[in-house]
Amino acid sequence: MAVAALRCLIAAGLAAAIIVCAGASPAQAYVIDGVRWPGTTITYYPTAYRTAVDRAARNWDHANVGVRFRRASSASAADVIVKLGAQQCGGFSIVGWPRWWSQSWVKLSSGCDRDLVTLVATHEFGHTLGLGHEIQRCARMNPVVDYSGTPEFCEYHPISYWLAHPLKGDDIRGARTLYSSPVRVRAASRPRAIG
Ligand SMILES: [Zn+2]
What is the rounded CA–CA span in Å between residue 169 and residue 151? Predict the structure, then answer.
């Protein structure tokens, strides 16, 4: 693995933030960290990086995980608004179905390479689906990637490879497991944001 510029994304609860930059045994699989959306379609509206965000949505649609992303006709009509607001070419998003919140969001950074943003948005849409961070094996949901888009624990490839192969089996298994399960809402739980 050639990682010249590791980037540790920030995972944050609504109050305190911690840096996630870890690695251990490859035994653990995907992490389900949020509530699945109740329907079979999640609508989104990109206010920035439209082409990259559309491509990120298609990455998940092509994986056939049991729910599909569709672009809404306006920001107000969308389940998820995608906007600027993250830092250091990372992303930030609400994990899973936000329930009583009227709208979910994904935040991206301004001024970043659009190919890298495509992969960051793919990761963030994984959070939108309800996936958490996979910090122990090669997966798009691993929060540590380099500027080629290669996640930690993955064999190095140039970004052109990752644009053609954005999701790993671990990501897809996680999302399929989540969307083949019943919706479970814990009354006391609150939606939270993660990088
Ligand atoms: Zn993340």
Answer: 13
SS3 content of the chain, % helix, strand, coil (to 5): 25, 20, 55
Going across the sheet that includes 193-194, the strands are 68-71, 41-46, 80-84, 104-108, 91-94, 193-194
Backbone phi, then psi, for 123, in 5-degree steps?
Answer: -60, -45
3-state secondary structure of 93: strand
User: Where do runs of H (alpha helix) occur along the chain?
Assistant: 50-62, 114-129, 159-164, 169-179
Amino acid at 89: C
Q: Ligand 1 centre from 77 Cα, in Å?
A: 25
Distance 132 CA to ligand 1 centre (A): 7
Domains in the chain, ordered, with CATH? 26-182 (3.40.390.10)
Distance 127 CA to ligand 1 centre (A): 7
| Overall average pLDDT of the 66-83 stretch | 98
User: How far apart are alpha carbons 93 and 169 in whole angstroms?
Assistant: 22
Per-residue pLDDT tens for 156-170?
A: 999 999 999 999 999
What is the distance between the alpha carbons of residues 31 and 127, in angstroms, rounded to a whole number?
Answer: 10
Q: How far is it, in rounded angstroms, from Cα 49 to Cα 27? A: 36
